[in-house]
């Protein structure tokens, strides 16, 4: 069993608690990603990167609020963390 499968199973088992934590983590990482993006100006590229961050964070938060399946919420959470982390690293260099 892979690490991803183990984490998905654990997330599904304790869905309510992890959903609250995931919403906080996703939103905070999104805010940091947007801050680091806007530190480089407000051209079309930066606005596109802000749009990407807001879209993935909103999709994740909406999936929790509309009580989607735990696997969908987990997939959106991991993609939100991955995309926002890449934006933070890319804009910090």
Automatic annotation (TrEMBL):
The chain crosses the membrane at residues 15-35, 47-66, 72-90. Keywords: Membrane, Transmembrane, Transmembrane helix. This is Uncharacterized protein. It comes from Zunongwangia mangrovi.
């Amino acid at each position: 069993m892979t690490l991803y499968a183990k984490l998905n199973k654990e997330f599904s088992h304790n869905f309510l608690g992890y959903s609250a934590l995931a919403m906080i983590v996703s939103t905070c990482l999104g805010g940091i990603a947007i801050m680091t993006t806007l530190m480089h100006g407000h051209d079309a590229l930066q606005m596109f990167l802000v749009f990407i961050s807001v879209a993935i964070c909103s999709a994740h938060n909406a999936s929790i609020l509309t009580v989607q399946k735990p696997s969908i919420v987990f997939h959106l959470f991991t993609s939100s963390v991955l995309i926002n982390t890449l934006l933070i690293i890319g804009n910090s260099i």
